[in-house]
Design brief:
Length: 180
Amino acid sequence: MMHKDLQEILISPEELSSGIGKLGERISADYAGRCLTLVGVLKGSVFFLTDLARRITTDVRLDFMMLSSYAGAQSTGVVRIALDLKESIEDSDVLIVEDIVDSGLTMNYLLPNLKTRRPRSLEICTLLDKPSRRKAQVPIKYAGFTIPDKFVVGYGLDYNGIYRNLPYIGVLKEGVIEGN
Ligand code: IMP
Ligand code: MG
């Protein structure tokens, strides 16, 4: 059953599960025998992160960051760290877990920031890749699904803070988005 504010379900729970299973297999093979630190970008990545972690067979640690764009500065990519990592990542294998890479500006900020902390390795895993609006080139190692230029919600992704708990990825109706 689809939420009334949606026009379409883009990725069903079953598709999410099998796509995340495939990501887990790749990551498990690539990091076999190593301990991997998953860095979840709050809040959007939480649902993805917890499902992905359970499909990874090597040891993992979890840590989190919260990033926020300066008000009115979304297009400039000026990002503020609202919550930083709890642990040092020096000499660790680190995988950033993100909900969606859109303009790429958030990852373009976070990647060099984490690199200065001297991890052993540093890669990006995103559930969704929306390449059509990219402003900064981002080296994405693992992407679950490539999606068209539509505003999506569910499975962690929000609009004005809601819809995160939908078990699928859906497209909001035009009328729900302010200014439409
Ligand atoms: P970027 O910096 O433009 O790559 O986008 C980063 C953030 O924008 C994501 O982590 C999301 O929080 C948000 N975002 C981008 N596109 C969407 C969308 O379609 N739905 C919900 N959030 C989005
Ligand atoms: Mg986000």
